[in-house]
Amino acid sequence: MLPSSRRRVTHSFPGISCATLTDFFYLFCCFLILFSVFSCLTSLFECWLDT
Question: Is-annotated flag, keyword Membrane (predicted)?
Answer without folding.
Answer: yes
